[in-house]
Amino acid sequence: MLVTGPNGAGKTNLLESLHVGTQGFSPRTRTEAQLLRFDTDTGRIALRGTRGPTPVEIAVALAAGDAKRATLNGATLKASEQLRNEVATLVFTPDRLAIVKGGPAVRRAYFDRAYGRLFPARATLSAEYAAAVGQRNAALRRVGAGYSSREALSPWTQQVAELGAALVEARLQTLALLAPGFADRADELGLPGARLEYEGEVPTVEALFARLDRDLERGATGIGPHLHDVQLLSQSRDLRSFGSQGEQRLTVLALLLAEADLIADRRGYPPLLLLDDVLSELDPARRRTLAERVAARGQTLITSTTAAALPVEPSQLLEVTPGEVTTA
Ligand SMILES: Nc1ncnc2c1ncn2[C@@H]1O[C@H](COP(=O)(O)OP(=O)(O)O)[C@@H](O)[C@H]1O
Ligand SMILES: [Mg+2]
C-alpha cells in the first residue's frame, strides 16, 4: 500500500499511529503526550485487520498523564506493550539508519530488541544484564571509596558473568538466525557478500577478576556485552565507515526483511511492515526489487511524497492531506 502526500501532510503520523496501535508504543518517542494532537488530552486508535486468517480488532486509548489502555478483540490487555506479543510490526524510518551509521550502543540496542521479538519470553535479558552491571559498578565505587570490601563484589561479578554469557549467546543466536536472510536480501538489493560479525568476548569470572584493579579505579565494569559491537560488512568493507547513504539504507532494509521472514516462520503470520520515506536515495531498479519483495508477503505500507517514486502498481493508494486520509 502506498501512502502519498506533500511534506508535513501527516504520512509519518499515520504510520506512527499504526505502530502504536499494533505494538503499544511509538517507534519515535517515549513521551506519551507527543502522541496526542496539540491542545487535546485524549486520543484513540482503532484498527481492524487479520493476523494470518484470524480477524483482529484492536483499540488503544491514550490520555495525557495516564498509561495507554489497549483491547484486543474486546479483551483488555494488562499493558498496551503486550500487543507486541500478539501482533508483529516492523518499521523503517530514516532514523533507523543509525543502526549502520551510529555508535555501537545503537546496534546493541537494535539486535537486543530483535532478539526480544524473536524470543518474547526472554526479552528482558539485556535489561537484566544492564541492571547487574549497574549494581556491580555501584559496588565497585563503594569498594573504591573504602565503604566495603572486595569480597562484597563477588555476587555481582558472578551475576555479570552469568548474564553476560547468556546475553552474548542470545546475540550470537540472533545474528545466526538473521545472517542467511540478511545476505540474501542484501544481495537481491545489490549489496553483495553482506555479513554480520559479532565483536566481543564472553565476560568470564576469571577475566573480570583479572581486571579488577582497573575496574576499581574507573568505578565501572570494563568488559562485557555492554561494550560489544556488531560489524555490518559487505564483503570485507565495513558499511559503517565505507557504505554510501544508499548502501546504508539497503543494509537496514535487508536486516528488516530478514527479520520479517523469520517472524513469519516462527509466528506463522507475516509482520506488518511500515516503511517510512524508504524510497529516497534508492535507484529505480532497487525500488522495484524492494517493492516486489514486500508484495510477496504480508501487508506493507510505504510512504512517499510522490506516487511516481514507486515503480510498481500499489495494491492500494492512499492520499494524505492534513487531517484526512483518502483512497485514491
Ligand atoms: N501532536 C501533534 N498534534 C498536531 N499536529 C502535530 C503533532 N505532532 C506533529 N504535528 C504536525 O504534523 C505534521 C507532520 O506530519 P508528518 O506525519 O511528519 O508529515 P509527513 O507527511 O511529512 O510525514 C507537522 O506539520 C507537525 O506540525
Ligand atoms: Mg514523514
Give a topology summary.
Blueprint (H helix, E strand, L loop, with lengths): L1 E3 L6 H13 L18 E10 L2 E10 L5 E4 L2 E2 L6 H4 L2 E4 L5 H4 L2 H15 L6 H20 L9 H35 L5 E6 L5 H6 L1 H7 L10 E6 L2 E2 H4 L2 H23 L4 E4 L8 H12 L4 E5 L12 E5 L2 E4 L1
Parallel strand pairs: 1-11, 1-12, 6-10, 10-11
Antiparallel strand pairs: 2-3, 3-4, 4-5, 7-8, 8-9, 12-13
Helix pairs in contact: 4-6, 5-6, 5-8, 6-10
The structure holds adenosine-5'-diphosphate and magnesium ion.
Question: How would you explain this protein's 3D organization?
Answer:
With 328 residues, this protein is of the alpha/beta class. The chain has a domain at 99-259: RecF/RecN/SMC, N-terminal domain (Glutathione S-transferase Yfyf (Class Pi), Chain A, domain 2, Up-down Bundle). The chain contains eleven helices and 13 strands. It has helices at 11-23, 83-86, 98-101, 104-118, 125-144, 154-188, 205-210, 212-218, 239-242, 245-267, 284-295; strands at 2-4, 42-51, 54-63, 69-72, 75-76, 89-92, 194-199, 229-234, 237-238, 272-275, 300-304, 317-321, 324-327. The strands form three sheets. The protein has a six-stranded mixed beta sheet, sandwiched between helices. A four-stranded antiparallel beta sheet has the order 2-3-4-5, covered by helices on one side. A three-stranded antiparallel beta sheet has the order 7-8-9. A hairpin with a 2-residue loop joins β2 and β3. α4 crosses α6 (154-188), α5 (125-144) packs across α8 and α6 crosses α10 (245-267). The mean pLDDT is 95. Adenosine-5'-diphosphate binds at residues 5, 7-13, 34, 36-38, 320.
